[in-house]
Structure formats: C-alpha cells, structure tokens
User: Which sequence fits this backbone?
C-alpha cells in the first residue's frame, strides 16, 4: 500500500509526483529559514525508501497505486510555452513550474533550496535503520548492516564539513595561487536560453571551495561533444571568481590556474585574459583520466602514487592513485590509470603543475576519502552541474544565485 499521508508519490504524472514530494520538505525548510530567528546549521532529511523508489528519472508507479492528474501538460504544449506566453489559467507559471524541474528528488530539493542557503544531508531511511527493511529471509534487504562503519564515517565527516569544519587542508600551499575548475552541464530540452550551463569551482587555500554560476548559452558542440564559452561569457565568469578571491584574500592572485576537461579555444582564452589583471600569471590546464598508458611495478603492489612521466615541457602523465607508503596499501582493485596533464595555455613549469595537482587530489570533502584520484577543482563537477540544472534556468536568472560553497551542492 502507498504511504497514508504522502500520496504525492502515487501521482501518475511523474513531474507532479516529484515536484509535490519535494515541496513537502522544501516549503517547511524555506519557511524556517525566513521565520525562525535561530538558524539551523544543517538539515538532516531522512527520506522513506518509497521516495527513492518513486522519485527518480526512470521511476514507475504500479498501476494499482496511480492517482490520475487533471493538470497534466503535454510535451507539445511545453515546447510552445518556451517561446510564447499563454494567458490560459491552466498554463500559468505555477501550473507549469513542475515540468521545468528534473525528475530527481535529491537534485531538485538541493536546487530549490539554493536561494535559501539551507544546507542539507539527505539520507535514505534504510541506510541508517537497515534492520527495519528486511528481505524475504528477514535480513536487511540492502545489506547495509555490514556497512555501518562506512555509513557512520561518511555521515560524520560530511556533517563536519557542511557545518563549517575543514577535514582536509593542503600543507604548505603556495601563497597567492588560485585554482578554478570549469563546469559544464547540458540542459534538458525544456530549458530556455541555450543548450548548456557553465559554472566555475574555485578552490581557496582555506580548505574550502566556492561555486559560481555562469551564463547559459550555446556552449555545447554536438559534433565534437565538448563545451566552449564565448569571449564575453568567459570574461564575466572569471571576473566574478576574481572579485570573490580578492574579497577573501585581500588581493588578486599572483597565479591563476584554470582546469578543464578540454582545451580552451582562442575566444575563451581571450575572455579569461580580459578578466585577469596584468600581475596575474594565467595558465590553462587540461586534465583527463587516461587509459592509453600503463605502468607496472615489480611485486604485488602497483605503481607509487605521485609517480609521473613527463612527456614534454607541456604534457605529462600523473598517477594520482597508487600504492601509498604511509598507509602501506593501495586502496583500489585495478591497475591505476594516470591523469593526462596538458598545459594548453600560458607558461609554467610542468613539475609545478604536477605537484599542485597531486596535492589537490587529496581532497574529498563529501566522504573524506584520501587520494581518490581527481583534483578538487573537478571533483564535484558532475554534482554541481546536476544541481545547477535541476530547475528552470536561463540567462535571465544568472545573477540571482550568489557564489556558494561546495557544501550546498553535495
């Protein structure tokens, strides 16, 4: 049977089902942030497993539980509403809103709470109470009873970080250096203003990171499958990041490293340079995981973490995963693959880039896992992109979202 109170799960229209279920949580949290004098540091949202089951993109409600909806809107009408306004009451903004949000409870809830700045930790009920959800033999259905130590570690470290703690901090970080990772996310068909959203993740030497939402535009090229900004959008995004850096540090950085998964083109680079003062050395670095080069070591353990093969003054391979002498183990199963590093713009010593990236791969705020292989500037790229595009988005609202720390997105 369906839950006796939260019957929103049973709505036949998936958009309405997810939207209304999220509303049950988001409306109360937003109201509390507005009306309560004492603010909550972190909201723990323990969701019934039915929400996980019925409020994801491919969720299907059993026919016996479905509740029909009279307000359902077709794809054809939604496409028309993108380009022309309707004065019919059934197509007003409050009626259409559910169809512009992603069909994912987690991402939609995070997106709808960004403006309220509420910080959340979403947990499935069966994760922390596995014995209450037995299978046919009476054992915990998901096997979470065998992972309670990991669950406790992940929840406690994530909570520590989201409440303002710093589980990781780079030792002896170079003074005056700023690292920014560019984030792109292709938009769904029902979005207006372009085909992709861009954002920047800036890492601060305080041990935290900040996310900046950039322009929405035609950044995605389907022919080659990559993303590139135009000059104006590139300048605007980096200028916002530089203003925040100056506010935090009291000065502009002496070096600015831009990390991306593709090479920066001429228009992008010109825009980046427009936003950076002459005293800042600007460097563009492409970082991508590679499997075209394998390195083996005698014995049972794989290559040492931190090993590198310098191919040229601008290109190298860096093994950010591997055997860690201090831990006397390799926390992995397969032969580790390297990161392919390419200094595609600007000038810098390749060894400086490798040392910086190796340090940045130590950081994972969400689970506090040591050295999981990807630099923090790109670590949360997918998570940030998913949250930024989980709701309606266009160039008209690009200035409404203030720069927020990583903890709002993970």
Assistant:
């Amino acid at each position: 049977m369906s839950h006796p109170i939260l019957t929103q799960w049973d709505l036949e229209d998936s958009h309405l089902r997810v939207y209304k279920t999220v509303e049950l949580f988001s409306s109360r949290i937003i109201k509390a942030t507005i009306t309560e004098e004492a603010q909550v540091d972190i909201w723990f949202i323990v969701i019934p497993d039915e929400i996980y089951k019925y409020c994801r993109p491919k969720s299907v409600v059993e026919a016996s539980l479905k509740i029909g909806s009279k307000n359902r809107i077709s794809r054809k009408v939604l496409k028309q509403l993108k380009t022309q306004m309707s004065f019919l009451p059934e197509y007003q903004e409050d009626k259409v809103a559910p169809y512009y949000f992603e069909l994912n409870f987690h991402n939609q809830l995070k997106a709808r709470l960004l403006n309220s700045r509420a910080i959340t930790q979403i947990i499935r009920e069966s994760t922390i109470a596995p014995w209450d959800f037995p299978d046919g033999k009476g054992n915990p259905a998901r096997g979470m009873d065998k992972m309670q130590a990991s669950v406790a570690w992940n929840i406690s470290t994530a909570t520590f970080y989201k409440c303002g703690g710093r589980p990781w901090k780079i030792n002896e970080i170079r003074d005056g250096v700023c690292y920014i990772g560019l984030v792109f996310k292709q938009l769904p068909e029902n979005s207006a203003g372009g085909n992709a959203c861009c954002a920047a993740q800036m890492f601060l030497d305080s041990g935290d990171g900040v996310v900046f939402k950039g322009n929405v535009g035609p950044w995605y090229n389907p022919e080659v499958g990559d993303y590139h900004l135009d000059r104006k959008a590139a300048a605007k995004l980096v200028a916002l990041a530089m203003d925040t850096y100056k506010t935090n540090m009291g000065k502009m950085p002496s070096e600015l490293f831009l990390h991306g998964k593709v090479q920066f083109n001429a228009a992008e680079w010109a825009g980046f340079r427009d936003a950076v003062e002459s005293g800042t050395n600007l460097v563009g670095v492409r970082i991508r995981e590679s499997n075209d080069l394998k390195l083996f070591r005698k014995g049972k353990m794989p290559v040492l973490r931190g090993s590198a093969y310098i191919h040229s003054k601008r290109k190298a391979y860096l093994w950010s995963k591997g055997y860690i002498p201090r831990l006397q183990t390799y926390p992995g199963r397969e032969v580790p693959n390297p990161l392919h590093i390419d200094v595609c713009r600007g000038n810098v010593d390749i060894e400086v880039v490798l040392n910086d990236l190796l340090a940045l791969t130590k950081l994972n705020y969400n689970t506090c896992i040591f050295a999981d292989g990807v630099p923090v500037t790109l670590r949360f790229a997918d998570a940030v992109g998913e949250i930024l595009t989980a709701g309606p988005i266009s160039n008209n609202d690009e200035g409404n979202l203030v720069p927020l720390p990583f903890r709002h997105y993970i």
